[in-house]
Specification:
Elements (H helix, E strand, L loop, with lengths): L1 H11 L4 H4 L12 E3 L5 E3 L6 E7 L4 H19 L3 E7 L9 H12 L4 H15 L6 H10 L4 H8 L3 H14 L9 E4 L2 E3 L3 H26 L9
Parallel strand pairs: 3-4
Antiparallel strand pairs: 1-2, 2-4, 3-5, 5-6
Helix pairs in contact: 1-6, 3-5, 4-5, 4-7, 4-8
Length: 230
C-alpha cells in the first residue's frame, strides 16, 4: 500500500537535520495537556470555564486559513485560563496529499507530549509553504526540529494505534448530525461559526456568563451578620 511505503520511507530516511537543529521553545509547557480515552489531544487548565472542540485537518486549505487568521486568538484565551481545547483528529478532508501521514505523525508526537508543538509547526509550515509542507521529508524534518525521540516515534508510526484514533475521529464526526465541513468548532458543545469575530464573540459571552453565575452563587451563600455579633 502507498501509505505503508510512505511510512517505511519516513522511518528509514537518514537525516542529519534533527541532530543539528535545537528544539524550539514550547509555548504550551505551562499548560496542562493530556489525551482522552479515545486518544484525542486535550489542553487547558481544568478550571477553564469554556470548552472548545476543534475539528481540523492538515490537508484542508480552509483549516490552514483558519489557523492563520484565528488560532492565535484562541491560544491567548487558552493561556489566560479561559478555555480548554479538545482536538478531534481528522485526515483526508481536503485535497492536499499527505494529510493522513502528517496527522499520524502528530498523534505519535502526542505520545511524547509534543502534539501541540507539532500542531503549531505543521500548520505554520503549511501557511508559509503550502502543499510541500506535507511531503514525507518535511514531516520527518519537523519531528527532528521538535526534538522528538525518533526511536519511540518510529515505533508508533509503524503501529496501528494512530489509525485507530483517526477512526475514532471519524466516528465522532458521524455522531454529529449538524457537522458540515472542516474547520468545525464547538463551544461548550454548541456549533459556532469558525471565523475569528464569531468565535471571539461566543467565547467572550460564555466567559461573561460563567463569571456572572459564579458571582450570583457567591452572593446567594452570603448571610448577613446578626446584629450585636462581632
Amino acid at each position: 500500500m502507498r501509505l505503508t511505503a510512505i511510512l517505511v520511507a519516513l522511518v528509514l530516511t537518514v537525516t542529519v537535520v534533527s541532530a543539528q537543529t535545537p528544539a524550539p521553545s514550547d509555548r504550551y509547557a505551562a499548560i496542562p495537556q493530556m489525551t482522552d480515552d479515545a486518544g484525542f489531544p486535550r489542553i487547558g487548565f481544568p478550571s477553564a470555564p469554556v470548552s472548545v472542540t476543534l475539528f481540523l485537518s492538515f490537508d484542508d486549505p480552509a483549516s490552514i486559513a483558519w489557523y492563520a487568521t484565528t488560532y492565535e486568538r484562541l491560544y491567548n484565551r487558552l493561556r489566560a485560563g479561559e478555555v480548554r481545547i479538545l482536538y478531534v483528529p481528522l485526515a483526508e478532508r481536503g485535497a492536499i496529499p499527505g494529510g493522513r501521514t502528517a496527522m499520524r505523525a502528530a498523534l505519535c508526537a502526542a505520545d511524547q507530549g509534543a502534539f501541540w508543538r507539532y500542531f503549531d509547526a505543521q500548520f505554520a509550515a503549511l501557511v508559509a509553504d503550502g502543499a510541500p509542507a506535507l511531503e514525507p521529508a518535511r514531516v520527518l524534518a519537523l519531528i527532528g526540529e521538535l526534538g522528538i525521540d525518533r526511536g519511540r516515534w518510529d515505533g508508533c508510526m509503524l503501529g496501528s494505534r494512530p489509525d485507530g484514533i483517526l477512526r475514532e475521529g471519524e466516528r465522532a464526526v458521524s455522531e454529529l448530525s449538524f457537522f458540515t465541513a472542516t474547520p468545525f468548532i464547538l463551544v461548550n458543545g454548541d456549533p459556532t461559526l469558525p471565523d475569528a469575530a464569531s468565535l471571539e464573540s461566543v467565547i467572550r459571552a460564555a466567559v461573561s456568563a460563567n463569571a456572572t453565575a459564579i458571582s450570583q452563587a457567591i452572593q446567594a451563600t452570603m448571610t448577613p451578620t446578626p446584629e450585636g455579633l462581632t
